[in-house]
Amino acid sequence: MSKTNPLLFNVIRDAIRRIEKGFEDATKVFTGKLERSVGLVGVVIISLSAMLGPGVFVLPALATEIMGSGIWLAFLLAAIVVLPGALSKSELASAMPASGGTYTYIEKTYGPVAGSIAGLGLWSSLLLKSAFALIGFGAYFAVLTAALDIDLSIKTTALALLAIITLINILGMKKVKAIQAPIIVVSIVLLIVLCIMSFFSGKADMARPANANAFSTGTIGLLETTAFVFVAYTGVTKVAAIGEEVKNPGKNLPRGMLISLAIATLLYTVVSYCMMATVSPEDLKGREDPIYVFAKAIGGSKLALFTALIAVVTMVSGALAGLLGASRFPFGMARDNLLPESLENVHPRFETPHVAIMITSIAMAFTILYLPVEDIAKLASGFKIMVFIAVHSCVLVLRRANTSHQWYRPEYRSPMAPWVQWFGIISGLVLIYLMGYKAIIGGAAAIVLGFALWLSYGRKHAVERETPWNTVTKLMRNPDHVEHARREAVFHACDLGGKNHLNVRQFIRAMESLGFELNHDEIRTTFHVADENADGVIDIDEFLAFIEGEIGKEAEE
Predict the structure, then answer these.
(1) Of 58, 68, 130, 556, which has fewest CB within 10 angstroms of its CB?
(2) pLDDT higher for 203 or 534?
(3) Is residue 192 classed exposed, middle or buried when 0-12, 13-18 and 19+ CB atoms within 10 A define those classes?
(4) Higher model confidence: residue 68 or residue 13?
């Protein structure tokens, strides 16, 4: 056995450590405990982790059924359509670098009705994509079980894995996410190696994906396929949801989005081109494991099995992060009083929004059981295209209303505005039309359900955030020593987790016990304003010290 070159080993080790450090810093954002801690590397890794998965391991096989071996061009066009969305989101994120991302931009631009619709649509699209990852995992898992001569149901296995990642999310084991960095590195390296091997395998016809037969479906087929694979890129802008935690967001967010989009575009386009040069669309018909077929054609069964294993790990890892992200939309809507209070309540011990996580998990299970993979991809793409259209409109509206909205001061401004935004809107509408009735019905359903949510709950409970906070400030400012001690005792008595933290339910119980003349929703709104990092809990000592002022601080001493 040859010895490993120590210099090369150290270089690789240091590079992996830097990537892992960037990813760990980025994922700590989800704990709500870091401020401006995510650098450019973290932004790129978060974006890539949200994109890689079904987009490369499943979608190419489904796309070939629409247009054949020319799918590489559809991936390229989809990236061009996504680019304006990345630019628009970069501008909005630099003006509103807060947790919530797209939901926050739409709600703040158009109000709570639009926020209800956008929040529901975003939640649906992300849980659909996460369910898509678990279903795609099933196809590769079947390959592994067949090789090991084990008989397991794909749907049963997907549901079992869903239960596991649900438990992990509830327990708050966020360090598990740190393994995603090396997973991403290994996945990218594997895909690059497969493409290089295809050139020297002697089985690839590099002219086939670019000849006339590759585009026999014409322009309509190409555009329809572009709309179908659009979902592969939607993760590029999800990092905007943590804009509040990004260092120098005016520079790092747009740079990170564009770098990750360039990497994903190159990867999707080259992989799909080399794959279609090596295997024909007929070889992928009825399959949902195209990279396995590709690897087997150029490297044999052992390489194909290793590829299947990496695909399984990558997609399960993506589903883990997807459930985490999807659950934050109902959590955020509940914070804005647009959904019932129970959805914003965090576990007193684990400090995770367990109710929102469980409801999202149940919706994913329903999707896995009753929706076919192709329909899931179309629904997810349709929702996301509509959201991108809304994001473009936010930039147009806020720029025109700038004189009456002095708070809109983006550090980064989208180039070639408003033409970039209008291109994004028009191209998005064209893609939705080409996707067919399923995407349109899905989007219409999100609008109807979102509006119904507003009428049934949000309209009755949404309140202005500033008024309750000002009221509480006046009521609680400058207590005497006895009153301070009473408040402190009540707050700590409601801290069931013993962490010097209160979740929203415990805070409401404490404030009601103290006898302040505020209704339930006003107390909730006060909690939301006090919870600046939006992690679902407030620190008792910090809250009392801030709200009570100098006399309260003296009382503590």
Answers:
(1) 556
(2) 203
(3) middle
(4) 68
Partners of 502 in the β-ladder: 538
- State the total domains in the chain: 2
Q: Helices 290-335 and 180-200: crossing angle, nearest 10°?
A: 150
The secondary structure of 369-419 as a DSSP string is: HHS-HHHHHHHHHHHHHHHHHHHHHHHHHHHHTTTT-TT---SS--TTTTH
Mean pLDDT of 315-339: 78
425 located within any domain? yes
- Distance of alpha carbon 248 from alpha carbon 277, whole angstroms: 43
Please check whether residues 385 and 484 belong to one and the same domain: no
Q: Which two tokens stand for residue 26?
A: 């980025």
Residue 448 and residue 551 in one domain: no
Across the chain, mean pLDDT equals 77
- Looking at the fold, whether 353 and 498 belong to one and the same domain comes out as no
Residue 326 maps to a domain? yes
Looking at the structure, do residues 176 and 124 belong to the same domain, yes or no? yes
Residue among 64, 75, 87, 55 at smallest CA distance from 266: 75
| Residue 442 and residue 520 in one domain | no
Residue that terminates a domain, selected from 436, 457, 478: 457
> 534 in helix, strand or coil?
coil
End-of-domain residue from the set 406, 436, 457: 457
Residue range(s) defining the domain that contains residue 549: 466-556
**Which residues does 40 contact at the CB level (< 8 Å), separation at least 6?**
252, 255, 256, 259
Cis peptide before 112 (omega within 30 of 0): no
Tell me how far apart the alpha carbons of residues 79 and 233 are, in angstroms, rounded to a whole number.
7
State the Cα–Cα distance between residues 547 and 455, nearest whole angstrom. 34
Q: Are 113 and 430 in contact (CB under 8 A)?
A: no
**Integer Cα distance of 84 and 73 in angstroms:** 18
Say what angle helices 6-27 and 180-200 make with each other, to 10 degrees. 130
Q: What is the pTM of this model?
A: 0.70
